[in-house]
Amino acid sequence: PIAARCGVFAKTDIQPLINEGAARADLAASIFQAVVNQTISGLACGKPIRGCVAFLGGPLHFLTELKKAFVRTLGLTPETTVDPENSHLFAAIGAALKAVGRTVALDELIDRLDRGVEITFEMPRLPALFADEGELEDFNARHALAVLPRGELSECRGDCFLGIDAGSTTTKAALIDDEKNLLYSFYRSNEGNPIDATMVMMRELYRQMPEGAFIANTCVTGYGEGLIKAAFKADLDEIETMAHYKGAEEFLPGVDFILDIGGQDMKCMKIKNGAIYNIMLNEACSSGCGSFIETYAKSVNMDAKTFAKEALFSESPVDLGTRCTVFMNSKVKQAQKEGASIGDISAGLSYSVIKNALYKVIKLRNSDETGDKIVVQGGTFLNDAVLRGFEKELGRNVTRPVIAGLMGAYGAALHVSDLHPEKSSVLTQEELKTFTHTAKPTTCRGCTNRCSLTVNTFDGGRRYISGNRCSKPLGGEKSELPNLYRAKREMLAKLCGKGSGTGERGRIGIPMGLNMFENLPFWFELFTSLNFEVVLSPVSSRELFKLGQSTIPSDTVCYPAKLMHGHVLSLINEGVETIFYPCMSYNFDEGKGDNNYNCPVVAYYPELLGANVTELKKVRYIDIYVGLHRPKDFEKRFAAYMAEKMGVPAGETKAAVRKAYAAYGAYKDRVRALAAEYIDYARANGKRIAVVAGRPYHADPEINHGIDELISSLGMVVVSEDGVNGLVQKAPRHILNQWTYQARMYDAARWTALQKDAELIQLISFGCGTDAITSDEVRDIMESAGKLYTPIKIDDISNLGAVRIRLRSMLAACESREGRQG
User: Fold this and answer.
1) Taking a C-beta distance cutoff of 8 angstroms, is the pair 377, 247 a contact?
2) pLDDT over 90 (residue 595)
3) Residue 723 and residue 779 in contact, taking contact as beta carbons nearer than 8 Å
4) If DSSP codes are grouped into helix, strand and coil, which group holds residue 593?
5) Closest-CA residue to 685 (of 655, 709, 715, 656)
6) Are residues 164 and 409 in contact, defined by beta-carbon separation less than 8 angstroms?
7) What b-and-e string marks burial along 730-764, b requiring 16 or more CB atoms within 10 Å of the CB?
8) Helix-helix angle 64-74:24-37, to 10 degrees
9) Strand 758-765 relative to strand 789-794: parallel, antiparallel, unpaired?
10) CA nearest 5: which of 31, 42, 57?
11) If you average pLDDT over every residue of the chain, what do you get?
12) 586 forms bridges with which residues in the sheet?
């Protein structure tokens, strides 16, 4: 599965899968299915696609597998489909039919074209990148000085050190000698197959290496780091942020700001006193990165270099804004209608890339935040127009290394240049001749995650497995380090086995999602005490999401909410006749914020389900408003409701409510006690603590995609924000905060900022604006304490390869910082 959102999100998922060796056939099928899912949930917006369906338009005409994906997903039959022979021409046929009975002379049509279209409005324009030829010459001369020492490979003897950067869209390599002279470099698109690109590089390098020179050590970095290391038996790997930093530091000692824009991602690093103290990456959407410019250049039959050159001489660049690729494409089309030249559009795109980096990724408030020694790198900065746009937007000159596109590979080579193993393990020239590679998809059955794996097999039976959320497919076991997310899931699962309810009053179904991940102990105790049998919906899964997909009215709502449609339908399919899912404007009052609201989705989604899931009208669906934050009032009102609607004596309900409050309090106390226990364990065993701050439903493995287990596998003890909630005194805030979950995150950030051995990771759900607001405030709390902050945005798909890069970057920066302080 890949993201069924815009093409950029889908590409963000596809690119790491390519670099992990996923088969092209599987990727093609994934893309077709994503189009189907996006149509059903995104375009239909909760209106079920029923009846007779016509397949029209070019994609459905030419792509038979796309058509089959629609038929399969919608359950269509030959009797319920219309597939015209000329379906790709239907819009043109309709236009022709519209014109029947009207005649226009051909000469008149030609005359209209000759006269052209009068433009009555125009898009805003930006300053030219260069005022004149002299300014361009000065620019070129200044950047031509940013060189590094080079040597001749043909004259080299002895140790050489190879760095390979398996990037998102390109493969790069740099070979240096023991004096750090660059002897050989390689840069090319991986064309969807990084192994083939690396093979070409290795064979070319071996052909050029003279007798007496040999590779003493090899290091791999980048998106495809794991695959390339396993395939070619490289000695070491290095997280790409650190590789880029090492390259920049060697090039410009004392660098304090690095911006790297690649084909698929952006990275910004801030350095103070020789240690990284902040890393920022584009959090999911790759709009505004190099691949967008390259894709547009291809659409006008130009290579990226020629397209960039056009921008240098534009007198009126088009202001295309900084929104996502889809919106930007619309603006490009509008600019073309208004007669903008290719140069104007190219220059406008260059400005957009920079503005996206500065104001969306880095969130720059003023140019002083960048420091004095600024290095820019990455393949996108080989584009002079992008570089010039950055300098103009920033208002200062920057340094672009002559090998800007190779800095990751160069940094990887530097990383191993001080290490001298007896012999490098990298494949020899002879071994390359018999090298083979196959990739096979499979599904792991080791646990309920059911991970979709790609098993890469190389000559001699060596294997590399990608897509796994734990170490089981690799022959090991899941990490046994304390993990509070895992503990909370286990505690909630055990509730169902308590058997305290006889079921004599019937069955009540509860959908296990959103706030039920926190409030279940309350409701479970209440209903079982009244002798109802509580039936929970199944554990969230992709299949559960598909079950309710056609009833989702908004594609922009967060994935946790989308899952609720499947949860209620699964209860109905199980034969449950009463489903309880109350509306809750307020959460429990923990005294931490200015108020204690639930977010609007958590508060009122029960009503949305009632309005959009028609099957709920066939059962008793209880979506009443309740206020658990006012115990006495809730007890009185709920007792009255149960007496009137369910025939339960008020006294029994009131006693059950008091038990429910006690059960909820005991559950929260247990969470805090476990957090304290896990923190003590971490400190006794020299482990770092990861405070994973989110919302209660982020404990759902389908929503967090196993990120908590991934963090645990990196050797960290995982605690949650509600586990450390209350460990710091209430502190004044500079904002109005009325949300319970956000108040916990602020407290978790304050506690983490005061600990030497703890780091903060915030999980953010797409579609939740309050999460975005919180992330900025949390970032300020952490930065004021000199601590790293790592936000991870998660949606219906979150590629763990990209998440792993972010987490390893955080840990590597921590080690850099602490080593420097030591």
Assistant:
1) yes
2) no
3) no
4) coil
5) 715
6) yes
7) eeeeeeebebbbbbbbbbbbbbbbebebbbbbbbb
8) 50
9) parallel
10) 42
11) 85
12) 597
* 452-458/463-466 β-pairing: antiparallel
Distance, CA of 473 to CA of 465 (rounded, Å): 7
* CA distances (Å), origin 463, targets 33, 220, 473: 28, 17, 11
Residues whose CB falls within 8 Å of the CB of residue 528, separated by 6 or more in sequence, listed in order: 498, 500, 501, 534
pLDDT digits (tens, 9 = 90+) for 701-746: 888 888 888 888 888 999 999 998 878 766 666 777 788 888 888 8
Q: Which helix (H) or strand (E) holds 610?
A: helix 600-612
Q: What are phi and psi for residue 214, nearest 5 degrees?
A: -150, 160
| Model pLDDT for residues 299-309, shown as the tens digit of each residue | 788 888 888 88
Tokens representing residue 630 in the block: 């006012």
Q: What is the pTM of this model?
A: 0.78
Angle between helix 600-612 and helix 559-573 axes, rounded to 10 deg: 40
Please report the sign of the dihedral spanned by the C-alpha atoms of residue 695, residue 700, residue 701, residue 702: negative
Q: Report the amino acid identity of residue 494.
A: K
Cβ-based neighbours of 620, under 8 Å, separated by 6 or more:
577, 578, 579
Q: Going by C-beta distance under 8 Å and a sequence separation of 6 or more, which residues neighbour residue 273?
A: 820
As a residue count, the chain comes to: 822
Percent of the chain with pLDDT strictly greater than 90: 36
Tokens found for residue 30: 């994934």
Tell me the mean pLDDT in the region 160-176.
Answer: 90
Helix (H, G, I), strand (E, B) or coil at 798: coil
Are 589 and 596 within 8 A, CB to CB?
yes
Alpha helices in 496-599 (DSSP H): 516-529, 542-548, 559-573
- Give the whole-angstrom CA distance, residue 263 versus residue 190: 11
